[in-house]
Design a protein that fits this description.
This protein is mainly β and 73 residues long. The chain has a single domain, classed as Roll (SH3 type barrels), CATH 2.30.30. It is 0% helix and 45% strand. It has no helices and nine strands. Strands 8-7-4-1-9 form a five-stranded antiparallel β-sheet, with no helix packed on it. It has a two-stranded antiparallel sheet with strand order 2-3. The protein is globular. The model has no long low-confidence stretch (mean pLDDT 93).
């Protein structure tokens, strides 16, 4: 998985920060977006974040995921 890949959420992921459903549970399963960052290092040092893949779905909404929660389309 690399920056620029189109991906789809393949597992049920509940978020509470979706812009149209503020502070209400929203399931992202089936949504499609674009990978904008894969975090593997910070200031030149390797890191191991819990949710390393940052996906942008639309102009106002981004979310972090684990690699196994996404599939490349």
């Amino acid at each position: 998985m690399k920056i620029g890949d189109r991906v789809r959420v393949k597992e049920s992921v509940i978020v509470y920060h979706y812009p149209k459903k503020r502070q209400q549970p929203f399931d992202l399963k089936g949504m499609e977006g674009e990978v904008i960052d894969v975090m593997t290092e910070y200031k030149g040092r390797p890191i191991s974040p819990n949710l390393p893949v940052l996906v942008k779905f639309d102009k106002r909404f981004k979310a972090h995921f684990q690699k196994q929660e996404l599939e490349i389309i």
